[in-house]
Amino acid sequence: MATPAEKLAASLEVLKELQDRGVTAIRSNDITRTHRERLTNGGFLQEVMKGWYIPTRPDETVGESTAWFTSYWDFCAAYLTERFGDDWSLSPEQSLHLYAGNQTVPTQLLVRATKARNQVTNLLHGTSIFEVRANLPGKNDFFIDSHGLRLFSLPSALINSFEDFYVRNPVDARTVLATFSDASSILELLLDGGHSVIAGRISGAFRNIGRDRIADDILKGMTAVGYNVREQDPFTEQSPVILSHRELSPYVIRLKLMWQNMRDTVITNLPPVPGLPEDKEAYLKQVKDNYTKDAYNSLSIEGYRVSIELIERVRSGQWEPEHNEHDRQQRDAMAARGYWQAYQEVLKSIEKILDGANPGEVTDYDHATWYLQMFAPSVSAGILKASDLAGYRNQPVFIRRSQHVPPSADAVRDLIPAFFELLANEKHAGVRAVLGHFIFVYIHPYIDGNGRIGRFLMNTMLASGGYPWTVIPLERRSEYMASLETASTQQDIGPFSKFIASLI
Length: 504
What we know:
The protein is built from 21 helices and nine strands. By secondary structure, it is α+β, with helices and mostly antiparallel strands. The strands form three sheets. Strands 4-5-7-6 form a four-stranded mixed beta sheet. A three-stranded antiparallel beta sheet has the order 1-3-2. The longest helix has 30 residues, at 325-354. The N and C termini lie far apart (64 Å).
């Protein structure tokens, strides 16, 4: 007779087979009741609604949202396809958010379908789907993304979105506008639909971001066939940055807009820049003296996949939800040693900056060394593989308890050079410090260690203006994480900049 451990292992094998096929939204008929109950009781499966489940982890605490936010977009795509087949789409506004590279999990996902019931479906952690009975765009005006989400095509989404989208979401609106290289795709739809009022709004929006030629081409095209178009700027303010015609990456465009939109708030909230210290050695001593207080670990982000190793450990009875104490202590020791080594490299970077080197250029070159030194002891101890130190991540990551979904691995390759260019060109040390930290963890370029590197960046940039080394105390962790979440999901840097200012 099979032991409980063997039975759980058998159920985990079933779950792994589903995950290997890319199944995130698990229906009741995808898995037997026996397996479902074992996995749910073991903490490997969580019910989203009646008949629908997602994989989770047994070490997640009650109320933990990570597994849900990790699975959210894949789950919604699968659930909506099951409900409506191919007769549905996300709203034009939500489509625009995704085209802008903004994958923040919305509190309520707006969905159109011709057979919708105009009802709300409640999901986990205060999220929901609101399905609206409405006509859909033509078959050529759909786009299906990597999650399986059905979106309005970009031109169609702009034409069908509400006017207040530009006011409520200026960063995302300007981002998608800046990805257009010419007017042809959107002008075609404007002409076919006779959208003279919308043409005036869209031409005004393009002119706001400095794309006068596209604006003019829209006006000329509509006028040529007899439409009377009145140009109107839907934004409340002029674009804070002139966007290059050569830059078509929505992630980079959005990053530059975020930086410009946020910097004035940071300057307002931070104390005046002291200026580079006259006594370099005394400043470096202050940094060294802060090591003990500063050395704490960041959150570690892992995926939610069942491995063969886990199955075999469960089968043999060796799986222990409570980590082995010896292993825990060894892991902590290696982390502490790595932090010390990385700290010494940060000191070297600060010394270069105090000698007059450009802070952005120094950290661009040196941050990879910080990362290597941070995790080298864990490789030596066999806790990590050497290949884990290869550089930026090549897979998705998710932040625990956060609705913010970091950019894709491919996007990271575009974002990091743009990020360090912004750091190098920024004149205000406080902006470099606050946005340097926030944007780095927003991008989340590494599998692990992003928070620690982000705080190193913050303090290196604080040093570039003569601000003191600043420790984020453990007792204010909740406030710290909440302010980063507000900046990530609401584009409001105010709480985070005030938080940092209170510590300086």
